[in-house]
Amino acid sequence: MKTREDLHKIFSRIDGYREDVITMQRELTAIPALAPSSGGEGEWKKALKVKEYMEKVGYDEHYELNAPDESIPERKTRPNHVYLVKGREGGKTIWIMSHLDIVPPGERKLWESDPYVTRIDGDTIYGRGVEDNQQGLVSSILVLKALKEEGIKPAHNVALLVISDEETGNTLGIQHILKVKPDIFGSGDLVFVPDSGSEEGTDMEVAEKSILWVKVTTKGKQSHASRPHTGINAFKAASHLVVKCEGLYNDFAGKDPIFDPPGSTFEPTKKEANVPNVNSIPGEDVFYLDCRILPPVDLKAVKARIEGYAKEIEQAFGVTILVEYVQEQKAAPATSPDSPVVKALSAAIREVYGAEPKAIGIGGGTVAAYVRKAGLPAVVWARINETAHQPNEHCSIGNVLGDAKVFAHVCLSE
């Protein structure tokens, strides 16, 4: 059982890690762990740097579940590593899962400094990847460092799961891991993903919506714009379909207050170019819908309604419409707010940050969904500045240390 004395020792030890945070963030940021599809060579150099840190910290077991990738120089794989520290009682394992890969910096002119060279301004560290996901990676390493240096053994096993390919699809990361080692998680394990959250540190993500991306191609007949009666305006017909699809909000009008927004969303987004000149009636038009759908809603029913709307437009305008689904992902089962993983995290947040946590759902997808689909509750949480993927991405040193305390609290709980 954890004691107030043990918590005080660990928290005090973590408070002294400010320079460790700066050093680790500087060294990790200098290694651009970009996927080949993003113009990089993968995550291996960064994975080896993490291994260097962990060898200094110490662990009881280390194993690799690397995924084949012929596009990676020399190693031809993408790294997925597990570092395990055994607890006093064994039994369940507390997992903290972070990803190695980053996204490209984007437009360099929008950065106030080199994205791969950390810049320190008081409590803030700037650089690509410092928040997404190095904040979670560093904080989890510091948990084990503090436990070792204080000579305190956690109640149960603690495992750091360091994965690849989170930013580009998860096929070579968590999906590969669950494929080659489907029993990696035990039934009583607690899984934490420090990869999203809020500035207050109160939001615990326990549920996600289903995702449906729709490509709609409308075909009519091109003609001169001065003689529209000789053509069939695909753009006009598609525009009417866009407006008709607004009816999806009424067709699937359910609400769940755990989500923000609480209902399903059906939004037209990408629009491909049609004719390049003003004075032609377009004979073909392509647009996309991004649908984020509450878990109970049947995706087949949504698709049938979209296709029904398309048929109505075909008949009204004399066009032909092709509806394709470029992404379809049914929501994973939600993690119950009353589950042990949420209760343990809630207690730690109250202790460390003095804030009242709340369980929330999101419209986006995270790696936690794959864990939930495998049958194990998982929670996504961190106290972050929410600057991921933005120019001048940054994190708070205080948040890195605070999150380390939160996970240390969880690790010392029975």
Which strand order does the major sheet show?
A: 1-4-8-5-9-18
Helix content: 25-40%
Q: Characterize the overall form.
A: elongated
Largest sheet: 6 strands, mixed
Average pLDDT value?
96
For the record, give the distance between the C-alpha atoms at the N and C termini, rounded to a whole number: 6 Å
Q: Sketch the topology as an H/E string, one letter per element.
A: HHHEEEEEEEHEHEEEEHHEEEHEHEHEEH
Low-pLDDT runs: none
Number of H/I helices = 11
Beta strand count: 19
Radius of gyration: 24 Å
Question: In a few lines, what is going on in this structure?
Answer:
The chain is an alpha+beta fold and 414 residues long.
Layout of SSEs?
Layout: H1 4-15, H2 18-29, H3 44-57, E1 61-64, E2 67-68, E3 77-78, E4 81-85, E5 93-99, E6 119-121, E7 124-126, H4 134-150, E8 157-163, H5 174-180, E9 190-193, E10 203-208, E11 210-219, E12 223-224, H6 234-244, H7 248-251, E13 265-271, E14 280-281, E15 284-293, H8 299-317, E16 320-329, H9 340-353, E17 358-362, H10 368-373, E18 378-380, E19 394-396, H11 397-412
Parallel strand pairs: 5-8, 5-9, 9-18, 10-17
Antiparallel strand pairs: 1-4, 2-3, 4-8, 6-7, 7-19, 11-15, 11-16, 12-14, 13-15
Helix pairs in contact: 1-4, 1-11, 2-4, 4-11, 6-8, 9-11
